[in-house]
Write a structure and sequence with these properties.
The chain is about 30% helix and about 20% strand. By secondary structure, it is α/β, with parallel strands linked by helices. The protein binds fe (ii) ion.
Length: about 270
Amino acid sequence: MRIGILSDIHVDINYYDGDVDRITPAVCDTILNNDIDVFITAGDISSDHEITLDVIQRIEKDTGRSCLFVPGNHDLWNEKHPGTSAMETYSAMIEHPHNLAKGPVKLKDGWSAAGDTCWYDYSFGSFDLFSFNDFQRRSHNDRVWQDSIKAVWNKTDKETHDWFLRRLDASLEKTGSDKLVAVTHMLPIEEFTVPVPNDTWDYFNAFLGSRSLGDMLMVNDRVKYSVCGHVHYRKEVVKKDKTFYCQCLGYRTEWQDNDDPFIETTRSMKVITI
Ligand SMILES: [Fe+2]
């Protein structure tokens, strides 16, 4: 079975000519060109959950392949739905059968995918420079972390993080498979954070993931692959018997010497075989 991995496709931020989605067709072409059996995307499909669910449906219809996903923080934003809480948006998405936050999905004999959005607990921030209270402010040098405005959980980030961690742990347990692909939007390992010292990211790394997420995956012998997004890197790290992927398309403005969505989806999609 060939699994295609690509996260943070941000179809709306990457619109062409104002409102044309050239990303979804490019993703579909890349899935078909690579003979992918199952496509996995670890969130940030768009910044509006209705667009996100349309994109998932379109990928599955146009390729005939399953598209497994977890919502990213952007998918939960309420810019287009003022007053909506992150939990309401999360709940609106959860009934999709290929949303791994609903529950694990069997890939093939002995293999399942399980996952969830997960959240951050500030543990990747630079605590030699900032305190927990500084991170709780969620703004630094005139930059406001947008989740504080657009993904409103009505709980602290730590409480949200702990709630997700318990959910993911239960979901990993539920599969019954002895080999797992764990999918989270947030980062489980420090190697995927932005290198420091860095004036901006010494602070904002706090909002990228958590050490305890990585610790939980590391002690689970059944987890063979971990897939995340969020930081718009394309990186792979092997730790013991596990391979961690951060495999992102990212924003058009971040692409190197290229503005062609098909070239960039081809460059950035990772294929693993199980
Ligand atoms: Fe993103």
